[in-house]
Amino acid sequence: MLKSLTAAMLGTGIDPQHGGESLVDFEWRHRVLVIFPGDHPDEAKRQADRLLAETAGLRERDLIVLEVGRGDVKVLFGPHYDLNPHAIRYDLDVADGDFALLLVGMDGAVKLRANQVVPVSTIFELIDQRPARKTSG
Fold first, then answer.
1. pTM of the full predicted structure?
2. Locate the DUF4174 domain: which residues (predicted)?
């Protein structure tokens, strides 16, 4: 379960200075690929470029691609939402300066966590072997 959902259920806040939604809002609707550039913007750009070259595959797999900076969230692919970068970073337990790529499944669980650029084929293969993907096509 995502930490922000647990915090909301317990009545504790993530960051009262910042509004916006967390990844909880995507559960059972979308898979989410989250890129954290950290102190490595070149790696983040390389990962984003590789993903965005495969938009048909992203769309087919109900993927949203986000880039979470220190103070903002950019939707690189998919519908736009008002997202809270602090809640997402908290949910996914990613330190501020680290480069990270995370795949969050429709159930809200992290399916992939990497600290280097990952080939798109690896991400798609991981999704395609999931039971939810096999039944939904």
1. 0.82
2. 23-134
Q: Tokens for 132, please give them.
A: 């939810």
- For 17-39, what is each residue's pLDDT tens digit? 445 677 888 889 999 999 999 99
Q: At what angle do helices 41-52 and 120-128 cross, to 10 degrees?
A: 60
Question: Using alpha carbons only, how large is the chain's radius of gyration in Å?
Answer: 14
What is the per-residue burial (b if ≥16 Cβ within 10 Å, else e) of 75-102? ebbbeebebbbbbbbbbbebeeeebbbb
3-38 as b/e, with b when 16 or more CB fall inside 10 Å?
bbbebeeeeeebeeeeebebbbebbeebbbbbbbbb
